[in-house]
Amino acid sequence: xxxxxxxxxxxxxxxxxxxxxxxxxxxxxxxxxxxxxxxxxxxxxxxxxxxxxxxxxxxxxxxxxxxxxxxxxxxxxxxxxxxxxxxxxxxxxxxxxxxxxxxxxxxxxxxxxxxxxxxxxxxxxxxxxxxxxxxxxxxxxxxxxxxxxxxxxxxxxxxxxxxxxxxxxxxxxxxxxxxxxxxxxxxxxxxxxxxxxxxxxxxxxxxxxxxxxxxxxxxxxxxxxxxxxxxxxxxxxxxxxxxxxxxxxxxxxxxxxxxxxxxxxxxxxxxxxxxxxxxxxxxxxxxxxxxxxxxxxxxxxxxxxxxxxxxxxxxxxxxxxxx
Length: 323
Ligand code: MLT
Known about the structure:
Helix content is 46%, strand content 20%. The protein has twelve helices and nine strands. The chain starts with a helix and ends in a 6-residue tail after the last helix. D-malate (MLT) binds at residues 35, 39-41, 93, 155, 159-161, 183-185, 202, 205.
């Protein structure tokens, strides 16, 4: 008798979950951004949230949960119920590099379901205006001439700006002194104020300060110039040939989230990405939209796995110590 009741109970619960998933969402959805407000991740998430709420018919809230290079915020999302109401926003740093830097309490692939690949951008090498250099070559000469390493702002060990700094050290042989922040929004404020010397930053974060003349740009880490800032040379042109890094972003949900809920979130994000106003906002920030054939959840999963294979050896070789 027990077995029949138990089977009926399991069926009822599954049916109820399925039914709930079918009418998803029936309440606000939260995007956890693992960096401070005002930075590039926060900016992209808020642009998307504003448009996704139209498709989903529910509020889409952005919650900043910061610390440890973004791994605290991702951990919070991983621990949330797999019901689609909590989304993990992240990127090459949080959903690839963190796994090579920290002993994470979660697995970046096994504990998350990919939802959608988001826009990407090259990194940009920027300094405070007081640095006596007007070209990348002069910046490298200045860095080499210093008695002590220059202060480079990052969003914490394992963040995109930190990995970009490690990569910069590898290609130039120049040591940097990292100054960690809860995001590159606060780091940029200190760069403008002259409190730190440089950032290898997401272009989308620094580009408006470069345009305003409050910081100086030397190159973008790409083979081609930015369409939205053609005056900034590439690393290839400026003297660091082959120093290329593209920071792509994405959204994930906890493993076990129903497939139709993942599909519903994917559709809302894709509709946002295809909105001309959203595209314009992203492109003005120097962000490149993902290709149409890269917008399925699987495409993000494939990208994440390929980037783990690509970046982990360099990051592990750097033997990054995190307290
Ligand atoms: C990073 O450096 O990982 C991000 O740009 C940080 C942020 O989005 O604030």
